[in-house]
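Our collaborator T.R. sent over the components below with a one-line note: 'Predict the complex.' Nothing else. No constraints on interfaces, no templates requested, no preferences about which chain binds where. So this is a plain run: every listed entity goes in together, and whatever single assembly comes back becomes the starting point for the next discussion.
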Amino acid sequence: MSGGAITGDARTGGATADRLLRVTDLEVRFGGRRVLSEVSFDLSAGETLGVVGESGSGKSTLARAILRLIPATLGSLVWRGRDLRTCDSSELRGLRREIQMIFQDPLGSLNPRLTAGESIAEPLRIFESALNTRQRVARVGEMLERVGLDAGMMDRYPDESSGGQCQRIGIARAMILSPKLLICDEPVSSLDVSVQGQIVNLLLDLQRDAGTALLFISHNLALVRHLSRRILVIYGGRLVEVAARDALYERPIHPYTRALLAAVPPANPWRSGAASSGLIEAEGAVRPVTGCVFRDRCPYAVALCAASVPPLEEFVPGHSVACHRAGELPPWAAQSQP
Amino acid sequence: MSSLLQVENLTVSFSMPNGAIDAVRRVSLGVAAGECLGIVGESGSGKTQLFMAAMGLLASNAATAGSVRFGGEEILAAEPARLNRVRGSRLTMIFQDPMTSLTPHLRIGTQLAEVLVCHARMSWREARIGALRMLTRVRVPEPERRLEQYPYELSGGLRQRVMIGMSLLCGPALVVADEPTTALDVTVQAQIIELLRQMRREIGMALVLISHDLGVVAGLADRILVMYAGRIVEMAGAVDLFERAQHPYTAELLKCIPSLSGPRLQRLPTLAGQPPRPAEIGAGCAFAPRCPRAADRCRAERPELTGSDAARQVACHFPVAP
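Returned assembly:
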């Protein structure tokens, strides 16, 4: 099992105490098709773990499997000593208050018939039913202020609010129970560039104040770099590279990670033309099911890549990669990025 | 300058239950033959509606004022039959989502050939050869096989290649690409930008590239227009815009883009507030509520787009010092 191969620093990010979540050999199937395979990693209290991958890579499936919104077919999800996959529904209910999630579509993830105040109060109604109305309103008011919304938002409906405001409401709803883990699934990708930074800074402030761990899922590598201590790169439902932030951005190993970094357009025109992934373009909508999942786009693929799945192995301490050719690749030349 | 596309004082408004909303407010611009003009703006800035108006593709509750001339001919509010002579052949458009802009139940070959049958009066046999040639030209691998396939069988990148090929079939003078890479993954985006660059070199058409992503526009555009709340706030050569932004909005927006290198930031740079809704725009500068340089004059009096050079314009009372 490749889950055993990722050990030590790469798996834990160096921290052993305060482990919140240990994911081991997680697999999810939709119909007969595997959409997540042999995913293993640890998450510590207060940590920000970035998850980077393209659409269809399985990053949202991973988030949903952790919350048990979809069932995992294999592997284990141990949350503070209890297995989320096997615990009963009453236990799961208790665990869910410790793990909250915010979604990509801020408007679509709010109930259109609830005001902002009602949406934010809902978790309190469920988990802190002893509170009376006045206490609850006070808590909601406090939370609104913490996410930078004025009290007048309390009675507004989602369709009367902007995307940025809706995302703040979603964050307030997720944070009102002070969860130990907040899963952020592309929380800013549907927002305007000028609003994205506000939301990211808010998440960082709340994390600092409440000590919440963040699982930050994004396709935006530049954004993830500024946020995360450690990063998982996922492709075709498998982890292809796991490393500390600086190692990943300065010394990426997997050809897919390198292509992702090379493809980010430089934000100044005189260096244009630099952005090129160097990849072979995918032809169909379906990825290979045998061998390395990346081999149809990989410029370095050889016969071995079609024959067997490369396991995720520690290549240098704290830096794991799943590539048969990891040791033979040319050195990474950082692009002349701005 | 005689422009291929000349837009004068274009206003686009939508009648809504609570009154009319202006999405585009007295915009004037020209696109010269062969150039690549980038249009940058956030959602609601009017960048898409501006060109939907030029293409005659506005929703039924829209009204327009002003003028849009293409190749010297007025096309704003032209009869559909008249518009159809240029639209789809001399003047074409590529959209964000290649899945929904291709017809799902028709084979790729049929959809491409149809353009040549309708606009170039080819026979279906000739049109099919033309379609095959175009797929080869836009670097679609195994083009013969693709002609028989349906859109869902292709990857997102290949679908966008097919769309680009379709837009080029009749030798257009101008292609308008509205967020052509936004629905694609970043590795595929780089390949599509490269294809657009190659096609410009080979075919020489003018290209209007509309995007919220300054990085995408930076890689292709000769000139860039920045839009905010339905108006052009800055116009400059691409390098000049990035090196010497004059409008505070452009300058702040450039700071907001997180970078892949350089020091890691504890907090991301931000622009306070959010883009205004059309109903909130008053007499003054629409950006004033968010602007670090705003003064009383900005709230009272809207700055006009001005500049000593026709190609270097800014709409700001207190532009950032060059």
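Summary for T.R.: The longest strand of chain A covers residues 19-30.
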